[in-house]
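WARN retry 2 of 3 for item q-0093 after timeout on previous attempt; input resubmitted unchanged.
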Amino acid sequence: MIRLIPSLPALYVIARVVWPSPWPLVVKLGLTVLLLVASQYHLWSRLSSGSVFAPEFPRPVVILFNVAFGALALAVPMLLALDAVALICSVLPGSGWAVPMTWRYAMVLAAVMLAAVAVSQAVRVPPLKDVTVAIPDLPLGFDGYTLLHLSDLHISRLFPMEWAQAVVARTNELRSDLIVVTGDFIDGSLAARRAAVEPLRALTARDGVWAVPGNHEYFFDYDAWMRHLAGLGIRVLANAHTVLRRDGGALVVAGVTDRSAPATGHPGPNLAAALAAAPADAPVVLLDHQPANAALAAAHGVKLQLSGHTHGGMIRGLDRLVARVNAGFVSGAYQVGDMLLYVSNGTALWPGFALRLGRPSELTRITLRTSS
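OK item q-0093 returned
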């Protein structure tokens, strides 16, 4: 029964649009089958790879599945709104207005077009977004210091090696002082993604590339992936920190593991351990894949937390629901006590729901400024 739940939107569209139409029976049957197949995209993904998070179909097929699945998700609320209006009219004296079928066709066509735009927005190489952060008592040597924040790369069949190469090239062109990655590098096993992640080896910045794991790393042999990322020159801060120095001043970059880690038998986030022996007078920039623990970081004196995980909520309106399960944080900057939290919309997103409307992907360049 649980596997039938994703097909409920398709059944609604079939009942309200396909079968009431004047089309030939063979067309109705064909559309019914296609909609039901599209609605079970995640089941086919699981069958293709053993995991709902890593569809192993050719990229065009993954794109088509996302357009179809997204169109169903968008069409249902539109059709429900029409039915609600018709229901209200049916109880009003002297009304009896019914929804013309042409209106239903228009809603479905609009949903398909919106879904196509949303997928194209999701799969592009993201544009640059500049963010300036003022940190009290930031050492003068770090005034103007730039961090290039990547998050939620989700390298997969949908975001393949060619896409990763383009992201790396764009990132390196910006010549930031530091590159940080806040998790969810991949969707898939090391054997399946070894070639696709190879472009990450070329990431370069004056102070290196530092990262934390996301929840998706724990879905696909976390230990193997951490070793491989280290071999690519990416230094993972798993409840640890590094100290950067400029002109006698220090800046601490710390990182914690993901909240989902204990479920797979790995150490969970431990901010105290991450900051152990860090210079007490140095401002702290924290990398944490999920933003929900921001209040804890602020209580520990962190000045700036960089997170991802939410994908910005993907679609305006839906982002309010995503915020509710992430302590109210979903996209952009938030003041949490004396700390600034910045939640990236993500460089990419999970290929199981690759749609963006009003919540664009981003390469985020953070420029630090000192303030008294």
